[in-house]
C-alpha cells in the first residue's frame, strides 16, 4: 500500500487565495494547486514558487504549484473557491452578486470536470448566495458544498470579547448564525469565556457594542484597507474547514450549509452550527432560539433570499 498526500486546489490567487494556500501548506494538510486566470499565469506561478521556497525555513513539506490550467487540479480532494471580485469602501457584499455569480458558474464547471469527487468550499461573496450557486451548478450532494462565514464572524466576536475582558482569545467561545451580512446574528446567549456565560461577565451595553462591531467587522477592514477586503482571518477560517475535513475531525463549527427545513427554512444555504469531518457537512445542529433570536435570523434570511431572487 502506498499512502499519498492529499491534494487541495485553491481557485483565485489573490489576497485570500494566496494566503489560504500558504496556511494550508504550512499545516501540511496536503499538496496545493493555486489557480487563477490565464492573464495571471506568471504571477500565480511566481506566488506559488515563492511560498514553496519559504518551506525549508518555515519547516513544512507540501508541494505548491501555480497554474491557470484546470488540468493541474485533477483529482483534488478539496477545492477552495476564492475567485472573483472583492468589495471596496462604500460597497456592500451584495453589490458583487451579478459579477461573482457568473464567475462561480464558470469556475464550478471546470472544478467538477477535473475533480468529480471533491469537496468544494466557497469563500467568494456574497458567500451564502455564491455557495448556493456552486451547489446548484456542481450537482454535488449538499454535504460536499460548504460556504465559509461563521468561523470568521465568530472569530471577530471572540477577539472583541477577549479584548474587552483582557483574557485569552482561546478561552472565549462564540457562535454567529445567519447570512454573512450586516444582519448576521451573533448569539450572545451561547457565548462563554472559560465556561462562564459572557452575559455574566460583561454589561449589556458593552455586549451590544461588540455585536454591532462584529456585524460590521468586514466593513471595518474594507474601510481601513481602502482597496480590498480582509484576508488573514478569512484564510485562517477556511483553512480550519479544510483541516476539519482532511483530518476527519468532526469539529462543531458554524459553516454555510444547505437547509431543508432546519430552523424553519427550505432550499437555502445559510450559516448554522455544523459538524465537519471527512464527508464535509456531516450534521446540522439545530438550536433552541428565543423569539428575538428567531426574528433576527428571519431578518438575516430575508437578505439572503433577496440575493437568491437575483440569481434566477
Ligand atoms: N466569505 C468570507 O468570509 C470572505 C469572502 N471574501 C470574498 O472572497 C473573494 C476574494 O477576495 P480576495 O482574495 O481578497 O480578492 P482578490 O481580488 O485579491 O482575488 C481574487 C482573485 O480571483 C481571480 N479570479 C477572478 N475571476 C476568476 C476566474 N474566473 N477564475 C479564476 N480566478 C479568477 C482574480 O484574478 C483574483 O486574483 C471576494 O469575493 C471577497 O469578497 C473575502 C473575505 C472573507
Ligand atoms: O467584508 C468583505 O467584503 C469581506 C468579508 O466577507 C469579510 O471580511 O467579512
UniProtKB/TrEMBL annotation:
Domain Lactate/malate dehydrogenase N-terminal positions: 7-147
Keyword Phosphoprotein set for record: yes
Annotated keywords: NAD, Oxidoreductase, Phosphoprotein, Tricarboxylic acid cycle
PANTHER family listed in its UniProt record: L-2-HYDROXYCARBOXYLATE DEHYDROGENASE (NAD(P)(+)) (PTHR43128), L-LACTATE DEHYDROGENASE (PTHR43128:SF16)
The protein's name in its UniProt record: Malate dehydrogenase
Enzyme Commission designation: 1.1.1.37
One Pfam family in the UniProt entry: Ldh_1_C
